Amino acid sequence: MQRIGVFICWCGSNIAATVDVERVSEVIRSEPGVVFSANYQYMCSENGQQLVKNAIKEYNLTAVVIGSCSPRMHEATFRKAAEEAGLNPYMVEIANIREHCSWIHKDREEATEKALVLVRTAIAKVNLDAPLQAGESPVTKRALVIGGGIAGIQAALDIAEAGFEVDIVEKNPTIGGRMAQLDKTFPTLDCSACILTPKMVDCAQNEKIDILSYSEVEEVKGFVGNFSVKIRRKARYVDETKCTGCKVCMEKCPSKKGLNEFNMGLNNRTAIYIPFAQAIPNVAVIDPEQCIKLKTGKCGICQKFCGVGAIDYTMKDEFIERKYGAIVVATGFRPLKPDKFNEYGYADNKDVITSLELERLMNAAGPTDGVLLRPSDGTHPKVITFIQCVGSRDTSGCGKPYCSKICCMYTAKHAMLIREKYPDTEVHVFYIDVRTPGKNYDEFYRRAVEQYGVDYIKGMVGKVYNQNGKLMVQGSNLIDNEQVVIPSDLVVLATAIEPEPSVRKVATLLTASIDTNNFLTESHAKLRPVESPTAGVYLAGVCQGPKDIPETVSQASACAAKVIGLLVKDKLKTNPCIAHPDESMCNGCSQCANVCAYGAITYVDKEFRLGGGKTEVRRVASVNPAVCQGCGACTVTCPSGAMDLSGFSSGQIMSEVEAICKM
Amino acid sequence: MTREEQKENLLRMSGTDVRKCMKCGKCSGRCPAYHEMDIKPHQFVSLLAQGKIEKLLSGKAIWSCLSCMACVERCPRGVAPAAVVEAVRDTVVRMQGANGIRAEDIPPIVDELIPQQLLVSAYRKYNK
Predict the structure, then answer these.
(1) What residue ranges define each of the domains in chain A, with the CATH number in brackets?
(2) Distance CA A4, CA A59 (A)
(3) ipTM for the whole complex
(4) Taking all residues of chain A, what is their mean pLDDT, rounded to a whole number?
């Protein structure tokens, strides 16, 4: 029989207002095994914890039950307190009498009864608790960053700064990501390339950072501290170690009709190309879909002209395998293609463009050398109309239900820059709400209106149609209760952003959870915002949710801090509440391995003694204690009842059910 | 009927959740009959949400709405302003004591792609 101490927390008035805490601790005192019972206003406070520690010592408690908030909140707090008082931390059970009781009930009498049941249930469980010891696993002191945009770049630089080696895996031929495509950045309007490209160069020059561009993660094995990752290095057809980035190949290449992805397809590029002038690595790549030599076997001009012999048409995809202690996912976003919204006429009118396309048209390195010209006829647009929330906040099925967060600010930026550069241009913005929370953000938007005279119209556009070469933008002006038609030369759609689709594959490889919008889920929305629920996997940038550059950089640095915190450890403590098979009952059916979301279960052939000197070899389940997260899926799947979970054994759960049913 | 009951009735008849409206005005931005309507498509949704039933029932817009469903098609939140218009129209017709639809008026051959609501509203309007 355990010597149990029961501690009921008031949680201020959170519990005490609905649950008669005095009565609970009084009634529970007479339960078998309970040698001490108390209640206190804030059990998690230093005084409250001291109360627990003193009682453990004074009454020689062998087990502790805390009636308080959810174990997600303070289980670790009380386990630590118990450990400090000399008790095994796993001899502590939490009865959740706040979230499961006081918060959801109004009737004090009923809530008190339920609290009693919950505490008795915890007592039933703690009676069967056994002291557990956390195991240890080693840590590989190297990090992997998936995605080489600003999030991945920042995370890699910060991790490298602490002295750890980092690999950036980027699927495109260069790092830089979306930020490299931007012209100016809000709210300070500094040139995007001017602040990004030095960081890209830092990555290239940092001896701790290895940039694996034009590469993708193919396979992930292992667990926190011990990931083993297979990376596909896509055939570039150019030897990265030889190419000097002289661009002679680009000048000579006869296949010039490829859509320039970097310029959002607004102009063309050659089949062999360097995505943009400041690309890192500054190495050419051949588009195999477009290269005449690779398609027909005839051409080979770039090879003839390459002064260093870097071109190799026979190159094949290669695979490398590396070990990592931690993984940062920074796969980023892409703008939604607005062609499903035929009311805006994006597919039919060249002069209906997206904001990212405008970004390229405004950029000095863009297809128009930074002169704002309309794509259809190369003239200066005199009336420009912006439409916000294209595909955002849309539950009709065409768009995304969420607010993309960055569009209000970048539209204000575009409107302002256009009015600054071309004061004779009329600029209208159709908006539903202008959302500008952020330091100096609302001031920025107001400046567009008050200083630059941008016309903001509260209302949405219903239709864009072409009439005599003008784009007629018909929409609501809700303030004036009017339907307005604005004849425009250029229409800019502030399209929603969505996670880069390849994130689904990455999430699957990492067993990282993902939501219905393909955003990766953080471990706790408030208190663990950069951690994935999968240990050792961290999230930076838009792959976790819409965010702008300052937020992305903050999150990336936060990720780096978490990664560094992990990599400085030589060994990791593992959670001892994990599954273990009873090998004498295991029939080797593999069902547990099939349901394990973490890949923690493997099968081994093991020799068993049968008695009389005989042995037999049977296939039995084996749980990797460092990988198992203790979810219990295997225990309920196991048809023979061989699998059990330490700290949550089937016996304990049955005794809890019995305790509830007894009432 | 109390005003609250009338509101419930209109909500039920229209089958649309007016609380989903985010007041973007796209319905009125698209409406081809906008200039003919004294109550605009977005106002039908807003007035019903606020329970301003007298104003809804006294408006003339129910006779100019084309029931073309453009507002329904374009709404980003799955609200159906035209269904509210139709519910108001139906209520007014019933209050006048005559259900304007006569089965024999429905032509034997009807394009099956025409929304049923459009047919119904058309017969109500033309028989008023």
Answers:
(1) 4-126 (3.40.50), 142-234+318-332+500-567 (3.50.50.60), 248-305 (no CATH), 335-498 (3.50.50.60), 579-646 (3.30.70.3270)
(2) 9
(3) 0.85
(4) 95
Rounded to 5 degrees, what are φ and ψ at A258?
-75, 145
**For residue A73, how many C-alpha atoms fall within 13 Å in the half-sphere facing its CB?**
14
Give the minimum alpha-carbon distance from B73 to chain A in angstroms, rounded to a whole number: 9
Task: Count chain A–chain B contacts defined by CB atoms under 8 A.
Answer: 70
Instruction: Taking residues A278-283, report their average pLDDT.
Output: 96
Are A461 and B26 within 8 A, CB to CB? yes
pLDDT at A575 over 90: no
> B35 contacts in A (CB within 8 Å)?
483
Shortest distance, CA B79 to any CA of chain A (angstroms): 9
For residues A430 and A492, the answer to whether their CB atoms sit within 8 Å is no
Q: Where does the pLDDT of residue B109 fall: very low under 50, low under 70, confident under 90, or very high at 90 and above?
A: low
pLDDT tens for residues A577-586?
Answer: 999 999 999 9
**B55 vs A: CB within 8 A:** no
**Domain range for B63:** 3-126
Q: What is the CATH number of the domain that holds B63?
A: 1.10.1060
Residues of A with CB under 8 A from a CB of B: 343, 389, 393-396, 398-399, 432, 458-463, 474-476, 478, 481, 483
Closest A-chain CA to B79: A396
Q: Is A57 exposed, middle or buried (0-12, 13-18, 19+ CB in 10 A)?
A: exposed
Contact criterion met (CB below 8 Å) for A122 and A93: yes
CA separation, residue A83 to residues A56, A90, A93, A169, A569 (Å): 10, 9, 13, 42, 21
Cβ–Cβ below 8 Å for B26 and A475? yes
Q: Exposed/middle/buried for A550, CB within 10 Å: 0-12, 13-18, 19+? A: middle
Total domains, chain B: 1
